[in-house]
Design a protein that fits this description.
With 184 residues, the chain is α/β, with parallel strands linked by helices. The chain has seven helices and six strands. Strand 3 and strand 4 form a beta hairpin. Helix 6 packs across helix 7. The longest helix is centred in the C-terminal third of the chain and has 20 residues. The model has no long low-confidence stretch (mean pLDDT 95).
Amino acid sequence: MNFPSRPFKGKSLLAFPDDYTVIDIETNGFGADVEILELSAVRFRGQALQDSFATLVKPSRRVHPFITALTGITDKMARSGAELVPSLRRFCDFIGDDILLGYNVNFDINIIYDNMLARLGLPLRNDFVDVLRFARKALPRLSDHKQTTVAAHFGIPTDGAHRAEADCLICDGCFKNLKRLLCG
C-alpha cells in the first residue's frame, strides 16, 4: 500500500502536557474518498476547559447510512453545515500552535493535514499526543481499547459518543485518568 508523504506533519509525542487542544473529526466513510463531516477542538489550559470549536461540514455527496447510524449525523444536518475551506481556516485559527491530543489521533491528523494542504496550501504542523497509546500501555487486559471501552473502565459517561465535540470531552476524561494511572 502506498501512503501519502506528509513531510511537514508534527511529531507524535509521548507526553502528558497541561496545555493542549483535543481534536476529533467525524467523516463520511473511510478510505480514499473520505470527507470531513464534523470538526471539533476543545482547548485546555492547566488541564481546565477553556474554549471549544465545533462545526458540521457540508459534504459533496450524501451521508452514508452507516455513518448516520454511527454518529447520528443525517444528510439533512450535514447539508446545513459550513463549507470545508472556511471551516478549516477557523479550525486552524482556533488550534494555533497547540499540542493536539486525540484518540487514535493519527487518523484525524492525516485527514486534516491532507485537506489543509490541498485546500489551503498549508500543512498541519502541530505536534500531537495519541491517548490510545497510553490506554494500550496502562490497560493491557481490556477486551479492546476503543475510546468508549476505556471511558467505561474509568466510569466516564459516553453520551453523545461518535459526535466530534462529545468525543473530545470523552477523550480528555480518558487522558486525565490515564495520566493519574501512569504518572501517579
